[in-house]
């Protein structure tokens, strides 16, 4: 179908809603990754693999949770730049609010995880014995620690300690999200106007040199926000950029290095640094490719975007709790049984995410938006 002239108009410089759809897609990919890593870990034990397989193609984007997390970090940099402090004295307020924006949902998710794990205390261990997946080692096994430790982990520990949380393991990203928020908000408060672009370039390169690619992705996302007005619609080149980003970043990591050029290249695709670069290229493609924007602005993907953070927070407790119990209770589970378990778990995850959106996510956002508005008004009067 030919692209209409209206689709070639440069997108407005406000909210890029197609990126919400991208975030929703990435959140689903993380959930898919965790489910199949838990119950059929064979394809995810492909570190050191040889030959060529579907994991060495962009199709791996459908289950490559590593790449999705890189997309999250780059998108966070973009969004944080859009909401950056207007003045230096606003920075402490916005950084503090950013902590609560992350910590309150993380606290709720950690408490939910405790109840699921406590309700099915032996399910993870039993499922690990059947599937052989080492992924379950990132979840508490009996005896289950008390509830207050789950609250502490979700509200504080995940923000100050490295390593995998053992109640709800996706919360390991919260510390990086907070550090990235401090980096972008603090940097924007200190550096003004045209100086921001070279500062973001220098920051991203510097973080890459010290091998902190996650924070470098924040700088890259903020840089794309600064340059968005210069990015013109280019359907063909934008599509090629998306494909290149998937080749570099979405290829599942772990291909063995070898003497041949092909193995040497494949061994690096999808690895640290490459996936962050790929994520940034994908975002560029969304900013420049009309058909891609149209696709991800459709209602279904926009709804996934609204559910993205809740889904990210609630899906693992379902996997290590009731899904693991069902996997053991109905063993042996064949291909059809695993597909049915996946479908039921997915429906349950979306239902729980929808409840989380209404009960936690939206009230937190509304409350913080009110505080931000009042706080900025008082700072302006001071």
Topology:
Blueprint: H1 17-39, H2 65-82, H3 91-119, H4 123-131, H5 147-160, H6 173-190, H7 196-209, H8 213-227, H9 235-250, H10 261-266, H11 274-288, H12 290-296, H13 299-329, H14 335-381
Helix pairs in contact: 1-2, 1-12, 1-13, 2-6, 2-8, 2-11, 3-5, 3-6, 3-13, 3-14, 4-13, 6-8, 7-8, 8-11, 9-11, 13-14
EC number: 2.3.-.-
Transmembrane segments: 21-40, 60-81, 102-123, 172-191, 197-225, 237-254, 274-292, 304-328, 334-360
GO molecular function, one term: acyltransferase activity
Q: How would you describe this structure in keywords?
A:
382 residues, mainly alpha, 69% helix, globular, disordered N terminus
How would you describe this structure to a colleague?
The protein has 382 residues and is mainly alpha-helical. It has one domain. The chain contains 14 helices and no strands. Mean pLDDT is 92; it is low at 1-12. This is Acyltransferase. It is an enzyme of class 2 (transferase).
* E-strand count: 0
* H/E element sequence: HHHHHHHHHHHHHH
The gyration radius over C-alpha positions equals 21 Å
Class computed from helices, strands and strand pairing = mainly alpha
Uncertain runs with pLDDT below 50, 5 residues or more?
1-12
Total domain modules: 1
Shape descriptor reads globular
β-strand percent reads under 5%
Fraction of residues in helices?
A: 55-70%
Main beta sheet: none
**Total of DSSP H or I helical runs spanning 4+ residues:** 14
Mean pLDDT rating: 92
- First-residue to last-residue Cα separation: 57 Å
């Amino acid at each position: 179908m030919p692209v209409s002239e209206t689709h070639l108009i440069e997108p407005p410089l406000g909210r890029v809603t197609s990126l919400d759809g991208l975030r929703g897609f990435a959140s689903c990919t993380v959930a898919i990754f965790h489910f199949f890593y838990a119950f059929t870990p064979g394809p995810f034990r492909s570190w050191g693999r040889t030959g060529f397989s579907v994991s060495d193609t962009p199709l791996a984007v459908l289950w490559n949770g590593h790449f999705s997390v890189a997309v999250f970090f780059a998108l966070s940099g973009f969004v944080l730049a859009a909401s950056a402090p207007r003045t230096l004295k606003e920075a402490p307020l916005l950084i503090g609010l950013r902590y609560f924006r992350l910590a309150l949902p993380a606290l709720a998710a950690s408490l939910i995880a405790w109840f699921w794990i406590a309700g099915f205390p032996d399910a993870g261990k039993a499922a690990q014995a059947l599937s052989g997946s080492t992924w379950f080692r990132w979840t508490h096994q009996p005896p289950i620690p008390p509830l207050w430790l789950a609250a502490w982990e979700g509200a504080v520990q995940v923000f100050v300690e490295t390593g995998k949380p053992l109640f709800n393991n996706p919360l390991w990203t919260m510390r990086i999200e907070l550090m990235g928020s401090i980096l972008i908000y603090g940097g924007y408060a200190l550096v003004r106007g045209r100086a921001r672009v070279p500062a973001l370039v220098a920051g991203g390169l510097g973080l890459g040199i010290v091998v902190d690619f996650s924070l470098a992705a924040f700088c890259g996302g903020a840089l794309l926000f600064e340059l968005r007005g210069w990015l013109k619609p280019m359907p063909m080149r934008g599509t090629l950029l998306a494909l290149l980003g998937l080749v570099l970043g979405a290829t599942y990591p772990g291909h063995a290095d070898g003497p041949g050029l092909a193995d040497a290249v494949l061994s690096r695709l999808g690895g640290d640094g490459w996936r962050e670069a790929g994520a940034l290229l994908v975002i560029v493609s969304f900013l420049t490719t009309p058909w891609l924007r149209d696709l991800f602005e459709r209602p279904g993907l926009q709804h996934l975007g609204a559910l993205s953070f809740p889904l990210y927070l609630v899906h693992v407790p379902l996997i290590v709790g009731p899904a693991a119990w069902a996997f053991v209770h109905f063993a042996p589970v064949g291909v059809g049984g695993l597909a049915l378990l996946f479908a039921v778990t997915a429906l349950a995850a979306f239902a729980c995410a929808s409840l989380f959106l209404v009960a936690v996510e939206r009230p937190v956002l509304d409350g913080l938006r009110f505080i931000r508005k009042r706080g900025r008004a008082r700072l302006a009067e001071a």
